[in-house]
């Protein structure tokens, strides 16, 4: 007689709001892989289908406002989420729906990756999306812009070694408690990331500088950060874990089609070794 299975392990649900990349390099496909690898249960909520490959974006097919609202409402009846990661919100209408959900539900941790363009440089959002995105920032725990996104949101004409934390404080003043600035576009210190939360700040160092264009890095980092917060990590520890995770994954990227992709092979145990990635900022 076969034994009956024991009780299933309980996983913390995490809400993942964003777009779908059919080439598999970014967006909800990658977010889901990161969340499962860290031992959480992903709840992917679709905002738009970005019809693209590694060469560029052909078009965008947005989910209707009603369908976005229905996805969020349906999940709410069953899941109490431990955190939220927000990626591509293509229109001001999508932003307002997500903002309304955040106000009503007030989840414990919210990470916003303010996606504006694809890795190939093609615009993924409507012209009025930027001003609407700023309305969302006061409901965000940690904002994770790259340099062009930070310049657009701050706003700033440039970001360099002398004004990095000045720009981050300007972003923080718009609402988020924390800012994780991805420094891949900084020519003077490529691979260095910068973190600010309340009054704490640090520089997160790469183990190796990668000049190759590997897809989905911003999505994966923001999702890892949100997952760590949902699991109870402190913001500084979550930032360090996310950077250590990216250091590992960048070194293991694989090729398919014309692109390079993250392998995603994390686990809760592997993510513990992160403290060495942090250096204090004066």
UniProtKB/TrEMBL annotation:
InterPro entries: HMP/HMP-P_kinase_dom (IPR004399), PM/HMP-P_kinase-1 (IPR013749), Ribokinase-like (IPR029056). Keywords: Kinase, Transferase. Pathway: Cofactor biosynthesis; thiamine diphosphate biosynthesis. One of its GO terms (cellular component) is cytosol. It is an enzyme of class 2 (transferase). GO terms for biological process: thiamine biosynthetic process. Its EC number is 2.7.1.49. GO terms for molecular function: hydroxymethylpyrimidine kinase activity; phosphomethylpyrimidine kinase activity. Residues 21-259 form the Pyridoxamine kinase/Phosphomethylpyrimidine kinase domain. It holds the Pfam family Phos_pyr_kin. It comes from the Bacteria. This is hydroxymethylpyrimidine kinase. It comes from Eiseniibacteriota bacterium.
């Amino acid at each position: 007689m076969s034994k009956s299975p024991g009780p299933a392990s309980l996983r913390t649900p995490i809400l993942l709001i964003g777009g779908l990349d059919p080439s598999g390099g970014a967006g909800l496909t990658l977010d889901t892989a990161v969340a499962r690898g860290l031992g959480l249960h992903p709840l992917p909520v679709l905002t738009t289908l970005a019809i693209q490959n590694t060469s560029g974006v052909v078009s965008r097919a947005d989910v209707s406002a009603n369908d976005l609202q229905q996805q969020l409402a349906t999940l709410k009846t069953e899941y109490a989420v431990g955190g939220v990661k927000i990626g591509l919100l293509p229109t001001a209408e999508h932003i307002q729906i997500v903002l309304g959900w955040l106000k009503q539900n007030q989840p414990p941790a919210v990470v916003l990756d303010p996606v504006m363009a694809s890795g190939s440089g093609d615009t993924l959002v409507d012209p009025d999306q930027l001003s609407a995105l700023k309305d969302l920032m006061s409901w965000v725990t940690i904002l994770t812009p790259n340099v062009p996104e930070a310049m657009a949101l701050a706003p700033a004409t440039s970001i360099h070694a002398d004004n990095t934390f000045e720009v981050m404080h300007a972003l923080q003043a718009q609402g988020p408690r924390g800012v994780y600035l991805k420094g891949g576009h900084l020519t003077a210190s490529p691979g260095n990331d910068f973190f600010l939360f309340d009054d704490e700040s640090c520089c997160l160092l790469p183990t190796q500088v990668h000049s190759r264009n590997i897809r989905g890095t911003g999505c994966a980092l923001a999702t890892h950060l949100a997952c760590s917060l949902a699991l109870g990590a402190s913001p500084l520890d979550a930032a360090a874990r996310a950077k250590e995770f990216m250091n590992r994954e960048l070194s293991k990227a694989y090729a398919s089609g014309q692109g390079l992709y993250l392998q995603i092979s994390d686990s809760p145990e592997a993510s513990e070794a992160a403290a060495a990635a942090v250096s204090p900022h004066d």
